[in-house]
Amino acid sequence: MILTAARERFAADGYEKATIRAIAADAEIDPSMVMRYFGSKDKLFAAAAEVDLRLPDLTALPRETVGAALAAHFLDRWEEDEGMMILLRTGVTNEAVAGRMRGIFAAQLGPAAAALCGDPAQAPARAGLAASQVLGMALCRYVLRLPPVVALSREEIVHWLGPTLQRYLTE
């Protein structure tokens, strides 16, 4: 109940504007209960924004479909997981959250890039470039709501984004 309220409040207001009082009110509890269970706003945020990218095993896919599969996967993740939106919205203004996001993408996308590119030394750069594309698309589509990007269908986004991800991960 507290985590649900926190996720919704952080997603709506961002980290800086969300307050323990507002989260407690949303959860219909006393603010002291939030502090009792989580200790601080930072710890509550960390629990609320726990994110697993749930990457598919890209090495099990036909190599030429990896980019499109990853683009489609991230569209699903952005649209289904409030935690991803919390991190995106908050990460652009809060260095601690940005660090958390960097860690999530490095720890989860990095190994996938290493498995696909064949050169472990290139994996961090490749994962970073792939992350730049999916994060940029999500920022433009879901946060800034740029009309041309919002207007694109899922298939169009996969069509445009997939080849770039493919190149970053496999070429």
From TrEMBL:
Presence of the UniProt keyword DNA-binding in the record: yes
Domain of life: Bacteria
Pfam families named among the record's database cross-references: TetR_C_16 (PF17920), TetR_N (PF00440)
Transmembrane segments: none
MF GO annotations: DNA-binding transcription factor activity; transcription cis-regulatory region binding
Keyword Ribosomal protein: no
Keywords, in A-Z order: DNA-binding
InterPro entries listed in its UniProt record: Homeodomain-like_sf (IPR009057), HTH-type_TetR-like_transc_reg (IPR050109), HTH_TetR (IPR001647), Tet_transcr_reg_TetR-rel_C_sf (IPR036271), TetR_C_16 (IPR041678)
Residue ranges of the annotated DNA-binding region, renumbered to this chain: 19-38
Annotated HTH tetR-type domain residues: 1-56
Name of the protein this chain belongs to: TetR family transcriptional regulator
Organism from which the protein derives: Planobispora siamensis
Record lineage: Bacteria, Bacillati, Actinomycetota, Actinomycetes, Streptosporangiales
